[in-house]
Amino acid sequence: MDRSGGTRRRVGHRVSRTSRGTKIFSAIIIACSLLLAAVLGLHRFIPNRWYNLGSLIETFLPWFGLLILPLLILAAVRRRPVAIAATLVPAIVWFSDFAGLIPDKEIGDGDFRIVAHNVNAENLDTEATAATLVEAEPDLIALVELTAEQQESWGVALAEQYPYSAVFGTVGLWSNQPIAASNEVDLNLGWARAFRAEVEIDGEPVAVYVAHLLSVRVNSEGFTSAQRNDTANLLGEAIAAEDLERVVLAGDLNGTVQDRSLAPITYQLESAQAAAGKGFGFTWPADRPLARIDQVLYRGLEATASGVLDSTASDHRPVSADFRF
Q: Which Pfam families match (predicted)?
């Protein structure tokens, strides 16, 4: 009896320990799921004062959805209904934020097309890069990170099909429609990285801004973006003062539309990719894109299509967008 009773007590002890471990495991899954949901849904409340953590998370925010699947699998293996239900919370938040980007939202032909590309200062293959862009049959080609040597090469490559152009510093625009006026947008850098051009598209004036905001860095200091943020503020002020109703901004903003630091711009303009594209439209790095930092934003127009072109010799992929008056 004592031996039997002792065995029962030891078995009961093992069952109790197993049950306690399962509950702890489930609690961890629930806590991780709710934390993930909070990051996805409340990311704008994550402070930037610690290594610019909020902006860093927002730059790669869509990828946080990949954490949902392992949590769901672990909860399902343990057969814990409450844990399974908890993993659905971040899934719902993710889908509410990003599911709308997945389907193709192209709605037909537009009145004009713009292609934007960071050509990379080290890109020596102007001819092949230009062929990729021209193949998309754009009316406007916005280029950034141009060296002086590249500007001459691009002028030769595009002159026949795009006789109108404006170049300021390291950014330029080539057009098959007349450019009525152009002027630098001062980003307080000492050299030009942004400008405004008034383009007469079939007689309709459109303010086209071409910009290359300063780069950000991820290092021991975190996500260093103060200078990029300053240039975003100045560009946002210029766009806010724009008199024309129709506005297009194209170029490398070194940030995603989710990054709160680009709010001075993104609060005024819509994303062509979000409105008329398919998928996330990641552009950088070109070989395995993780983020969309090359943008075409607009207001006063209707976006009818948006996409990412084939890779060139640059470390960025080109983007295109179609618009209707």
A: Exo_endo_phos
